[in-house]
Amino acid sequence: KGGVHGERMPCTRALLMGGDHTDITQSCGHTLKGTQTGCIQPIIIGDKDSHSRPDSNRSVTVARHPRPRWKPMRPRYADLFEALRDEDPLRVDRAFDDILFDRGNALPDLIEAYGLSMDPPVIRYYLVQLMGFTEDPRAIPTVINALSDSHPDVRAEACRALEDLRARAALKDLQARLEDKDIKVRLAAEETIRALGGWRS
Q: How far apart are CA 82 and CA 136, in angstroms?
């Protein structure tokens, strides 16, 4: 994972479906604004063994969660964060892209939004990923907190975001994730520790 350094850009098509919420990430080869990506395509799916979009004839039930109170945030970002919860994946894409390309200015609102511990987990995933893409050290404390998120995909993304943030100060916290009960978190932590020079060959 290289952050927004000309290599990796995120695609954000979200499909929020009813079920056991067993997965929220899926690799794809989407092209965003002319840049080839090896992106993460966040989804929540009910079938643990299914990693593809449902066909167009299949009915989709969107997971419902209580709406947040975005009042303290600047209206532009409050609206964009709300759009990340939309049933229309194209609207989700547009909202994510708008935040992404204004990520430096959006950082205070991203930090505040994550502090609300929003459901569904894919929203927290987006927020952590976007904080990593800011490459702003002010995001580091919040992303370190996300290493303890209740959802493993959010914890794994927090590991990767700390690599984007070049957060060597987080090495001790990352080493604690090597004991995480979820293998994807352990692998992400190991990769980030190596990338940050925590282990030498």
A: 23
pLDDT, one tens digit per residue, over 4-17 is: 433 444 433 333 33
Report the half-sphere exposure of 144 (CA within 13 A, side-chain side).
16
Q: Report the alpha-carbon distance of residue 160 to residue 166 in Å, rounded.
A: 10
Q: Is 55 left (phi over 0), alpha (psi -120 to 50) or beta?
A: beta
Cα–Cα dist 68/40, whole Å: 25
**Cβ-contact 19, 44 below 8 angstroms:** yes
Angle, vertex CA 183, rays to CA 182 and CA 186, nearest 5: 95
CA angle, residues 101, 72, 162, in degrees to nearest 5: 45
User: Within 13 A of 127's CA, how many CA atoms are on the CB side?
Assistant: 35
3-state SS, residue 164: helix
Structure-block tokens of residue 181: 């009960």
Average pLDDT over residues 110-139: 94
Return the pLDDT at 183.
97
Report yes or no: 143 and 157 within 8 Å, Cβ to Cβ.
Answer: no
Which of 51-55, 175-179, 189-193 comes out lowest in average pLDDT?
51-55
Alpha helices in 58-88 (DSSP H): 75-83
The tens digit of pLDDT for each residue in 38-86 reads 344 443 333 333 333 334 343 333 344 454 444 478 999 999 999 999 9
The 3-state DSSP class for residue 27 equals strand
